[in-house]
Amino acid sequence: MSHTIIRGMRSKAALAVCGLTAATVIPLAASGQAQAAPYCGITWGSATKVAAALTSDTVRGARTGQHSCYDRLVLDLGGSGRSTGYRVRYVSAVTGPSGTPVSLSGGARLQIDVNAAATDSQGRPTYRPADPRHAANVAGFRTFRQVAYVASFEGYTTFGLGVRARLPMRAFVIQDPTGQRLVIDVAHQW
Fold this sequence. Notes:
Blueprint: H1 12-18, H2 22-33, E1 49-51, E2 59-66, E3 70-77, E4 86-91, E5 94-95, E6 101-102, E7 108-114, E8 144-153, E9 156-163, E10 169-176, E11 179-187
Antiparallel strand pairs: 1-4, 2-3, 3-11, 4-7, 5-6, 7-9, 8-9, 10-11
InterPro entries: AMIN-like
Pfam families: AMIN-like (PF24837)
Protein name: AMIN-like domain-containing protein
């Protein structure tokens, strides 16, 4: 049996004409007005995150962590007292300087371009993971699926981050006396 709910009906008699009870109408009205709060208060969105600073910093390491609302990738950088530039964005395929796509696990991919080399001024490596396809451990993470070191070329370093789906993310630099850290957080859900 289908019923039409007429807006503004408030009396029991009007409800009875439609064959409805107050219990039937109140949940329908209340559900239309409710709005979900952002997950964990996260309002980051999934648009590209950019800081344009050019630096002579170096990439020193990559590590990951899990938090209750998001997974975190931290790129350890040499140099302090200035901000490192970066661009973090969702892409259809992560590519390095050669343009060759890098295969990543997960339903979505983040390309992380850092304005910092993975070599020192003499060309010696400052960062070389044992397995570039798995540059940091993400086993058991809710959102991260794979971290890959893609390449370092002419003062820029690229990482690929495979994630479960396109989800809100943020990127920012933390300064401390021993250097800097580029932090990329990806939420567990919208």
